[in-house]
Amino acid sequence: MGVAPAGIEASNTGHHHLIVDAPTPAAGAPIPADANHLHFGGGQTETTIELAPGEHTLQLVLGDFLHRPHDKAVVSEVITITVE
C-alpha cells in the first residue's frame, strides 16, 4: 500500500489514522475525526502527540480517500503504552 492524501483516489493507497483509546473502526464506515481518531489526511507518516499520564492503547488504520478503512483492512496490532 502507498500513502496518498485524503481526497486523492488512487489504487492501493490511503492515509493513516491513529486510534487512541478506542476500538478499531468498523469496516466501510468513515473513521470519526475526534480526540480518539487522529487523521493524517495530508499523507503524513510521522507525528508527536501528547497523552495524559497513564495507560493508553494505540492502533494505526489505513483509510481510503474518504476516510474509510479498506475493504481488506490494513491495520496495525493494538499496542498498550504507559505514559509517565
Q: What do these coordinates show?
A:
The protein contains no helices and five strands. By secondary structure, the chain is mainly β. The protein has one domain (1-84). Strands 1, 2, 3, 4 and 5 form a five-stranded mixed β-sheet that branches. The model has no long low-confidence stretch (mean pLDDT 92).
Order of helices and strands: EEEEE
Question: Whole-number radius of gyration?
Answer: 13 Å
Question: Approximately how much beta-strand content do the residues carry?
Answer: 25-35%
What about the largest sheet? 5 strands, mixed
TL;DR?
The protein is mainly beta. The protein has no helices and five strands.
SSE blueprint:
Elements: E1 2-3, E2 13-20, E3 37-39, E4 54-63, E5 79-83
Parallel strand pairs: 1-2
Antiparallel strand pairs: 2-3, 2-4, 4-5
Features:
5-stranded mixed β-sheet; 84 residues; single chain; mainly beta; 33% strand; 0% helix; globular
